[in-house]
Amino acid sequence: MDTIILGDGGLGQAIAAAARDTGWAAQVVGRPRGGRHEANVFEGAELAFEASRGSAVLANLEAAIEGGIRQFVVATTAWDDDRPIVDRSLREAGAAAVVAPNLSLGAALFLRLIERASELYGAVETFEPYVLEWHRRSKRDRPSGTAREIVRRMRPTYTTEPEVAVIRAGASPGMHLVGFDAPGETVELRLTARDRSAYAAGALAAADWLAASPRTPGIHSFDEVVDELLARPVLAATA
User: What is the pTM of this model?
Assistant: First the structure.
């Protein structure tokens, strides 16, 4: 598959490396000088990975649509205000995008664990929830997109949103901890990324999902990709 990665930072480079290891052609492009990519930048590409910054997502996807791209994987966060416009642009163009604040399979399953844990501990009045997240110093959004998604998944259980503590220090690619604290005990669930390889692997899984069959135009959640992965039979190891 011929792909283009919008964003030449750490995540974009990790996706490009994973794509090339898979045998895909992957072109990485950085920030355009005029604030918007020219349509010819996308010539020959079948799918675009968006891995730049939140303020650039809308312009990048509109330019890519103009350039003929109809499949997208969006790994960028902090563009919530532009989401309705992006969704409308995709639908009008007959294009589909997988969007997630965190594209790792581990994170997707972690979110499901959090939903169930919230149901269990939320049923006991003495347990109070909290969230702690730690990312590299240069990460701009506070709290992270993953932390905001964690809180969103907990809302059906808790009428008062849990306290979210944010750390921006060093070079951590991402750590999220969800706790439930009672007077005599504490229960914690933790997700720690060691590098960006899990994000890149999830991005490629989302691209495979888009390419496997025609998808309804508009925005799709990564949960749809995960559901299909979980539905596949587990093959026993052979000697």
Answer: 0.91
